[in-house]
Amino acid sequence: MTLADIAQWRRGAPALAGELAAEWGLTLGEPYVPGTCGYAVRAALADGTPVVLKLWWPHREAEQEADALERWGGDGAVRLLRRDDERNALLLERCEPGTFLSEDSGDRLGVLIELLPRLWKDATGFRTLADEVEWWSLDGELGELARELAATQGELVLVHQDLHGENVLAAEREPWLVIDPKPLAAEREFAIAPVVRGSELGHSKRAVLYRLDRLCAELGLDRERARGWTTVQTVAWSEDAAVDLPEVVEWLR
């Protein structure tokens, strides 16, 4: 995957959206701000029900997004209404007003603590965290830690490995719904890694450690394993991060 490939795909995305709209009986509205590898547009069904048509450039982390949404079945997450795996297209429930959790003034961490256990469904059929650790190819002590944690996991459940304050939206059916899963079969301690390091919830040592402590206490998680997984995934994802993630690793030592 190169930036040129993605740019070329993005130029063709509106035409593909129009093609799908004609087939699925949709009226298209305004597109959302595009993500790195995705194109999403507001739409409506024939009866006026608001929906979202989402297209994406195929990449590893999104390969089983539709499967995760089906497994959740709308329990704490947006509902999947239709899928076209050949054209990498999803028709989704629309969240209105769609405000990001990161913009809310309430107990944002409490919202995530309520949502997380609802996402921990049966993980049969999903790529495993052990596979992902090998894919990351981490070296040295960190690689040893990652492989040790992967080999000694507890029960594997379905987790969203990119659960942060802009992947949870205000909705009407429920106060908050999760979007954009990057699913894995992993132990629960791994699931809190993106929340612990999430800069939108406060980027300081005090904030990071507060989130780690509260998440582990209220969800009954092993703090050392959660700390280890947060460190591992933070380093593995650091190349694509918008914040100085090495600070988070230092704070977690």
Instruction: Give the tally of structural domains.
Output: 2
Overall average residue pLDDT: 94
Percent of residues in helical segments?
A: 40-55%
Secondary structure class reads alpha+beta
Physical arrangement of strands within the biggest beta sheet: 1-2-3-5-4
Structure explained in plain terms:
The chain is an alpha+beta fold. It has two domains: 3-93, Phosphorylase Kinase, domain 1 (2-Layer Sandwich), CATH 3.30.200.20; 101-251, Alpha-Beta Complex (Aminoglycoside 3'-phosphotransferase, Chain: A, domain 2), CATH 3.90.1200.10. It is built from ten helices and nine strands. The chain has a five-stranded antiparallel sheet, sandwiched between helices. Strands 6-9 form a two-stranded antiparallel sheet. A hairpin with a 5-residue loop joins strand 7 and strand 8. The protein is globular and about 55 Å long.
Layout of secondary structure:
Layout: H1 3-24, E1 27-31, E2 38-44, E3 50-56, H2 65-72, E4 80-84, E5 89-93, H3 108-119, H4 129-136, H5 140-151, E6 157-160, E7 168-170, E8 176-178, E9 183-186, H6 188-191, H7 193-197, H8 205-219, H9 223-236, H10 245-251
Antiparallel strand pairs: 1-2, 2-3, 3-5, 4-5, 6-9, 7-8
Helix pairs in contact: 4-5, 5-9, 9-10
